[in-house]
Amino acid sequence: MDVPLSWQLAKLAISIGIVLGLSLVAERVSTRIAGLLAGYPLGTAIALFFIGLEIAPAFAAESAVFSLAGFTATMALGCGYLLCGRRDGLRGVLGGTIGALVAWWLASLILTRFEFDRLSGTLVTLVAIFGFTWLYRRIPEIRATPRPGGARWPALLMRAGLATAIVFIVTALAHVVPASWAGMLAAFPISMYPLLVILHLTHGAAPAATVIKHYPAGLGSLLSYTLCVSLTYATLGLLWGTLLGFAVATLWLLGWMKLQSWYGARQAAKA
């Protein structure tokens, strides 16, 4: 079907806003919080919503089932970037990107060979979350240092265009691929990858590695959101399904951050 111009403009505005917001959080608050928020249902929510709008809510709901397992491929992408993007500057970004895309593609090829339901897809990603969290436990916490004069808006806007391009590619491909691959594409880190590029180019590889370290922990809210919309898009529609999904994801994220604060305070008291 022909996609109205207003829908295309909405995708453009939302995608740019998300990337700029995450970049400011990483620079002015902390890369740890940015990593957690990168796992919040932002890019995936945009992709699944517009897939449902442009094709059908039922197709988006079916794709969301495969997205549940597809977040494992997203974590593989982060691992590939971490291993291949250790240098600072453009060379490190290019190496990290190549490693990330290869890792994502291989993981997606493996995952699409299986028939997932909501339970099995969620369990696969939960196992991957614990596995990658354990692997990343020794990565140091490096905060991005704010630069004099604040954010470089022209550069940020140019890089935000990358997220917009990913959203357009994902939603366009969803028209010609089966629901399994549409779900894998919707799970692609639409907001996290441009954030890595921004941090890597402006602050070096270490802050980008910190975002990757905390990304698996933030995926709980994304899993909650995706599971919710897989159940509600076909019955409640896109609007109410999306709102309910964000409510569930927010409750999970607030609970997780509170649990982390409690655990941190307990560890500090023991020291």
Automatic annotation (TrEMBL):
Annotated keywords: Membrane, Transmembrane, Transmembrane helix
Segments traversing the membrane: 6-26, 33-52, 64-83, 90-107, 119-136, 156-175, 181-202, 214-233, 239-257
Protein name: Uncharacterized protein
Originating species: Candidatus Halomonas stercoripullorum
